[in-house]
Amino acid sequence: MKPFSYQRAATTSEAAQAVLANDGAKFIAGGTNLLDLMKLEIESPAHLVDITGLGLDEVEDTAEGGLRIGALVRNTALASHPRVMRDYSLLTRALVAGASGQLRNKATTAGNLLQRTRCPYFYDTNQPCNKRTPGSGCSAIEGFSRMLAVVGGSQSCIATHPSDMAVAMRALDATIETVSPNGTTRLIPIEELHAPSGDTPHIETVLERGELITAVILPPPVGGRHVYYKVRDRASYAFALVSVGLILAEDGTGRVALGGVAPRPWRSTQADAALPSGAQATMDLLLADANPTHENAFKIELATRTLTGLLGQAGA
Ligand code: SF4
Question: How many A from CA of 161 to the centre of ligand 1?
Fold first, then answer.
């Protein structure tokens, strides 16, 4: 691991300004992803700004009837929060499908959204990877791509976003609250948080340098039946081949978001509108722009069959 300096921030503005002021600085909280990447020298921040003392660890009701989830709320605490379990159970189900108990005890809400891809070439520093080394090429497109994206990728990168939680957040229409080094705050709809791969897959979010996520806000609950189903190569501690987050009302209307298929949680309102017409009609719209490799084309059928099964179980 390369040497780095460390500071523990006392306020959000101190944290944001410290990252802005130090070239190559990074925020650190749970560290469940960043420390691994630093040990492998895939990331080598010159300065770490520890934000764990900022007190962003409360889950509060909003005036509108929703929830404001502090950026530092640990995944375990969020999954077991009474209001999350009662009103947003898709989120609980997605959280417990991710990682391991030990990791969920450390991992934070914001860190989960910002975790980096598990594309095998991203972790192999002997192989070209545009995300790790911009302009070096993508080893995956002609290589081992079974786990990678079938939709939303580019000629530069077909990495998937690995988060289960983010899929639930996308279906729940979460909004990301941030503060910038100059003190301004902004609200970012989750569908706008993760940047398209395009020619710059190393730029993964729309966050500016030093911009700190302070909370995730959920709108009032939408009711319905909440289901999260994750298809993976082994029963635990594995990333999704395909995951389906489904919110289904009694009349068959609802929302569906996919994980494991794209560089960000994947959902479209047009596909949501097709849910009453069945899984095939929904997936035809949701994956209309799919451009799979020969190794991962099976994900399209797998996603369709998974949704078919879930709708069947729900009696829809
Ligand atoms: Fe790198 Fe993305 Fe290609 Fe994987 S898919 S090798 S992360 S550029």
Answer: 11
